[in-house]
Structure formats: C-alpha cells, structure tokens
Amino acid sequence: MTMTATECVLELYEERHKLEDYQGGVPRWCTGCGDNAILAAVQRLCRDEGLRPEKTVFVSGIGCSSRFPHYMRTYGFHGIHGRALPIAEGVRMARPDLAVFVNTGDGDCCSIGAAHWIHAIRYNMNVTVFLHDNQIYGLTKMQASPTSPRGLKSNTTPRGAYLEALQPLTVTLGVQNVSFVAQAVDWIPEVLYDIVKAAYHHRGLSFVRIVQRCPEWLPKLWEPWLHDPERIVMLNHERGIQTSASLAKVYKNQMQHDPSNIDRAREIASNTDMLPVGILYSNPEVPCYEDLRLSTTPRTTEFIKRGLEAEFDKFTVWPQ
Ligand SMILES: Cc1ncc(C[n+]2csc(CCOP(=O)(O)OP(=O)(O)O)c2C)c(N)n1
Ligand code: SF4
Ligand SMILES: [Mg+2]
Ligand 1: which residue has its CA nearest to atom 6? Predict the structure, then answer.
C-alpha cells in the first residue's frame, strides 16, 4: 500500500511522545529525595529516544526507589525484594523486542539481592540497571545497608556501623563479563542525563550507580561534596561523556579516562578518596546471554507449543 505525504507525516506525528506521555502516578517520595532527579532524567530519555511506552518495561524490587515503575507510564513490574534483576532477565529472555530497565536500591541490590547482582553481571543481558544508592534502607525507616559508611548510626547500628562500606563499582568491575559501569550523582542533572543515555545505548547490561540523597534519614551525608565540587572527579573521553564548558567551571577536577581500560577503571573505583562521575568501563563486545541462547533456540510459536506439549506429556497418566 502506498501512502500519501500527509499520511506519512501523520504516522510520524503519532509516533512522537511528549514528556507527559511517560509520566505515571504522582511520586510519593519526600521533597528533595534524589529519586525525583533520577525519574526526571529517565522520563527525558524516554521522550528523547522516542521509546514506545508499550515496548518499554521498568522492573524494580522493594524500597522507596523501587516505587519507580509506578511513576512511569510504561509497562512495569514492582517485584520482590532483591529480585528485580532475575525478573528483568526473564522479561528480556521472553521478549527481546522490549527495552528493559531496572531500578534497585542499595539494600535491594547489594544486600538481599547480592547473589542476583553478581550473576546478572555475568549473564550480561541487555538491561539498563540503575542502582539508587542512598546508603540506607529508606522505606523501612533507616537501617544500615552494605553501602552505609563505617560509623553511621542507624536503627540497626546504634553504636555506628562497624564495617567499611561495600563499593558497588569495584564489586561490579570484578565480575566476569562485566560490560558497562558508570557513576552519577543526583545533583548534577546534566551529567546524570548523559550517563543514563549512554547506559541505554550500550548493548549488554549497563550498571549505573547513582549517588542518591535521602534527606529524610541522612540529610547531611553528602554536604561535603555539595559544598566542595572539587571532591568530584569528572571522567571525560570521546568514547565516554564530556563535561560541558559551563559545568567544567564548577567541577574543575577533570580526568581523561578511556572507558575501554578495565585496569584503570578498577584503580579509579577503588580510590575511595575521590568520587568519580562518568563512564568507568564500557565494552560492547561482551556477548549477551540472550543472543547466545536465542540464536540456537528460535522462539517461534511452533517451537514454544512443541516444548509445552513435550512438558505436559511427561505428566500424562495413561490408563492401564
Ligand atoms: C524478603 C523481604 N525482607 C525484608 C523486607 C523489608 N524491606 C522492604 S524495603 C527494604 C530495604 C529497602 O532499602 P533499599 O533497597 O536501599 O531501598 P530504599 O528504600 O533506600 O530506596 C527492606 C529491608 C521485604 N519487603 N522483603
Ligand atoms: S525516605 Fe529517603 S529515599 Fe525514601 S523517599 Fe524519603 S528521601 Fe527518598
Ligand atoms: Mg537505600
């Protein structure tokens, strides 16, 4: 069927979505919660990339941050505590045509979900993961998480947390098949957006740790970094992201870092004296699990029906 020019224009017009088309329920997060900034960046990404709401899924676990899918007008799955990653992998395996995102908290990902986190990195499925790291269990009212700083007083550590904080970047960079690791902070929206965009475009599992402020339970935690921008190191590279000239006037600590260099990425991540912001590592050549699997097992309707029948036949009770 041939189309007239007007019909073509109309069709293109229908495909374009406005920001409001991605906005779901009104967020119930506290005023000043860093989750609001992450939501704004992600909704902007969806609009700019023209993601089709019916072809986009946000999967989460449990926590304040895990309320994220409710605030998107796309498909969503508010899952089980710690289980966002395996749910997202299941979605991706069954529907490789969908864009799949994960929103997970530091408790959700690094505590109860830690085993899934490690294996998800190794499986390297094409999923964009945002770790909302506020260094505390927010929803359940202030228990220490694995990323809480040593000495932090909380309901479960009234004398202060005894252990050094777990570092999500070094853990992720240590896992076989890691393919994309970045770090953002909620209070630099321009860079947060650039990182979210680079993560979305990466083929494979992209892991973005976002330093997210929780003004309700830890209002002072990030003040030193807010008051002294030189404590932040901006990672720049032509294959990563570039700090704009106006931001570079504020964030003067700039570093050239080639994101294909994993040894340097590990060095940067393990230096806890600085807070690197940018893309630490990116390797699009790492195979994705769904590509390996789906290339050998085509998911046609006929194939699925045959598989199901074979399974049911195993339980058939034949009359004697
Ligand atoms: C199996 C299970 N254990 C414990 C809980 C209670 N719980 C709900 S959210 C949460 C921690 C959330 O912390 P985090 O993932 O950091 O999210 P935040 O609220 O900080 O965004 C806990 C322990 C639960 N819902 N399910
Ligand atoms: S408790 Fe903290 S993490 Fe939860 S909504 Fe409030 S500010 Fe955000
Ligand atoms: Mg948390």
Answer: 140
Residues with CB under 5 A from ligand 3 (ion): 105-106, 134, 138
- Contact yes or no for 134/160 (Cβ under 8 A): no
Instruction: Tell me which residue of 97, 83, 85, 77 sits closest to 123, measured CA to CA.
Output: 85
41-88-29-136 Cα dihedral, nearest 10 degrees? -110
- pTM for this model (two decimals): 0.92
3-class DSSP state for residue 138? coil
For a substitution probing ligand 1, which of 108, 132, 136 has the most ligand atoms within 8 Å of its CB?
108
Task: Indicate the DSSP class of residue 72.
Answer: B
Return per-residue pLDDT of the chain as tens, 320 residues.
556 666 655 555 557 899 999 999 999 999 999 999 999 999 999 999 999 999 999 999 999 999 999 999 999 999 999 999 999 999 999 999 999 999 999 999 999 999 999 999 999 999 999 999 999 999 999 999 999 999 999 999 999 999 999 999 999 999 999 999 999 999 999 999 999 999 999 999 999 999 999 999 999 999 999 999 999 999 999 999 999 999 999 999 999 999 999 999 999 999 999 999 999 999 999 999 999 988 877 778 888 899 899 999 999 888 87
